[in-house]
Design brief:
This protein is of the alpha+beta class. It contains 3 helices and 3 strands, in the order αβββαα.
Length: about 80
């Protein structure tokens, strides 16, 4: 999410704050701070299921991750 905001807004600095509560299907807080200005995160499914789907967490690639690391190398989160 932060990298998307960096690219879309041509920002210098981005922080994303998410807060979850047991029993709530979506975050109770989803805030992005772009170059010092806060706004609500929009356009992303930040539910646990949405994050699992986005990052393809149900299709683990243990061997590839162990060989080359967690970032870059074609992973959705890097």
């Amino acid at each position: 999410v932060a990298v998307d905001y960096l690219n879309k807004r041509n920002a210098q600095e981005v922080y994303v704050y998410l807060a979850y509560a047991i029993g709530h299907p979506a975050p109770v807080q989803a805030t992005v701070i772009i170059d010092g200005n806060a706004e609500e995160v929009q356009g992303y499914d930040l539910s646990p299921t949405g994050i699992i789907d986005l990052l393809e967490l149900k299709s683990p690639r243990y061997k590839q991750t162990a060989e080359w690391g967690h970032f870059g190398n074609g992973f959705n989160w890097g």
